Amino acid sequence: MPRRKPFSNKQKKKQLQVKREKKRGGFRLHFEKESKEEVERRKKIAREKILKQVAEKELEIDMNQIYPEEKGLNFPRRPSWHYNMQREELLRKEEKSFLEYLEALQSKNPPGTLSHFEHNLETWRQLWRVMEMSDVILLIVDIRYPVLQFPPALYHYITGELKKYIILVLNKVDLCPSPLVLAWKHYLTKQFPHMHCVCFTSHPGQPYSTRERVFPVSVMRKKVGWNAGGPIHIMRACQEITAGRVDLSSWEKKIQRDAVAVGTEGDQADDGSESVLMEHHSDVAMEMNSPTQELYKDGVLTLGCIGFPNVGKSSVLNSLVGRKVVSVSRTPGHTKYFQTYYLTPTVKLCDCPGLVFPSQVDKQLQILAGIYPVSQLQEPYSSVGYLCERTNFLPVLKLTHPDHSPETPHNPSTQDWTAWDVCEAWAERRGYKTAKAARNDAYRAANSLLRLAIDGRMCLCLQPPGYSQSKDEWESHPELAEIITLQGRKDEEDECGEREDDEGESSSELEEDNDRDADDDEDADGDDEDDTVKADRKGLTLNMFSVLGENECA
């Protein structure tokens, strides 16, 4: 019997790292740590660099910028196995294959060129299991950053090697203007023709003005049950894919019942009248599961929900079920275990933990997209600067420059701002002070601003290539009405007129039940998208100050 080739020192180090993660909790997210020198260098830049608004064209990002083909930005695959293998042998083989994958990836990409990505083998194992047992994959992305969260390698693996269908779910469409949603849908459909693309929102009916790129209105998410826009479109895509091989009539009836319940009662009661069977799967139970070639086994359609952290997978699943079965959180990695839910007797949903694929995304953009945990940041100021250069932050935040003299008139738009100045001014605005010296707590203020961006209260939206030149075409596109209907908004021209007439004053009384940018709720379960603000039903005109939770600072 030939002797096994010994592991190299680098492989042994990675192996030890994987074992440590398993001891601490198998599904904990793992990212590479930055050097102290790099952190200090960025802090200095944040204090000195004057912020300048970038051109709108700079927001246009092509898929090849994030996932260049020549860089080999693949994802780890499950190695081949057979039933005669022992469990320990299979685990060893998967571990070795994963280490070889990391080495190959690092050999093609010099240090500092790759974005932060998932290094935990246990999380990748969950992805393998979900893809193997699912008939159709729901790949969920955040409409604000779709190209960041759609790895082409995953698309080609599912449609090419697994021979399965993908439904791309463009989630959180209430955070984007309708023409931009439509432009992204067409761009992605053209890039990846062998998939279905649907739009989705768990909170339809949120107003905004298309005159702005910053849409802090997304926090107006009322607790009106799981009144989602998009489940019917996912169901119709599944009907087209299954072509009558699965009876989906019970699913269609359920969607209709849920819509009626929300429309008549305003809040769908979780009275247990329609129970949902839930199954938890441990990694041990799934290790020797065979990837079956039989689709729709026993007449059941299995939908696998996969995607990056913070794209709203759990919210989509809750909306499909019609009530809360999965807790949601803004913290990346909140969903830690593979679970299945029987939506109806013929439809089963699989929820996979969110995981980050290797790419060449700027770290600042990863943070604003909610991919990298804000709580793990050592230096958040450069990300705040990145955000402010791409959003109209001054009218939204209503800041006073730290160097402003009370004797002189204040015009913040004429003053030079650095990222540090913004954090100092926001700390002063919110009353964030350090414990010992009672100075403005710029670090806490920076984290607060980043969470506003993640939540959608300061909304940065990327654009597909050529969008700025063809914006007029998208604004008059015949399919635009369908997107507006899905978002649940009224006619946007009328709404813009209302906003212009009432600019500078509030025509509605908005209140937040909770201040969502508090630092101590970062890891709270079930708090992600349930905070409520009350709005005047007639005008729905926004007071940005109230939306940002500034009532107490007025």
From TrEMBL:
rRNA-binding keyword on record: no
Keyword tags: GTP-binding, Nucleotide-binding
Comp. bias (Acidic residues): 492-531
Ranges of residues in domain G: 303-357
Highest taxon of the lineage: Eukaryota
Region spans: Disordered: 1-37, 488-539
Pfam family, any one: MMR_HSR1
Record's compositionally biased regions (Basic residues): 1-27
Molecular function (Gene Ontology), one example: GTPase activity
InterPro entries: GNL1-like, GTP-bd, P-loop_NTPase
Function as written in the Swiss-Prot or TrEMBL entry: Possible regulatory or functional link with the histocompatibility cluster.
Name of protein: Guanine nucleotide-binding protein-like 1
Lineage summary: Eukaryota, Metazoa, Chordata, Craniata, Vertebrata
